[in-house]
Design brief:
By secondary structure, the chain is of the alpha/beta class. It has helices at residues 22-26, 78-82, 98-104, 130-147, 164-174, and strands at residues 31-36, 42-48, 66-71, 107-112, 157-161. It has a five-stranded mixed beta sheet with strand order 1-2-4-3-5, with helices on both faces. The longest helix is centred in the C-terminal third of the chain and has 18 residues, at 130-147.
Amino acid sequence: PSSVVPPAFPASIPHLFAGQPLATQMGPGGRIGRFSGCKGTELASYWWPASATATTGTKCSTPTKAVILLIHGHGSYCMHEILAIPGPGQAPLYKGSWAEAWNGAGYAVAGLDARGAGFSQGTRCFAEAFADYTADVASFAAFIHAHGGPGLAGLPIFLVGVSLGGCIAVHAADGGW
């Protein structure tokens, strides 16, 4: 896709990503997808591979070490937590972000917008049960571990959570991840 905004996101809602090219947020090789969470909720997924870095524009010389799965906080969304925010009212950027730093160190990065957040389906900032959040993360981690794409299947996965995302990460880890 040429834009960060998934086609399912209502065009009538103003957002920071209008007119932004995909590479601005996703860097080289990054992509956006959809993941079916528990109860069939469509969640926006984000992938920043470790195979290239924005700083050098060249392939990393070492194989990918692991996958970092970022879980954002309440009232936020994945790209806000992991990308660099240049200033108020400006779209987040890959250059200078955690994603770029982790990619440069040999780590692939993945993330989800939780149900009701960012570009995912659901009532804004609402989940019927906290277990829905942990089930979404656990299924996404299992998907990454089994089918995560070229060179990612079977790699270790590190859960990194910000605020509420930290609580979700701890509960997902306690439940088997």
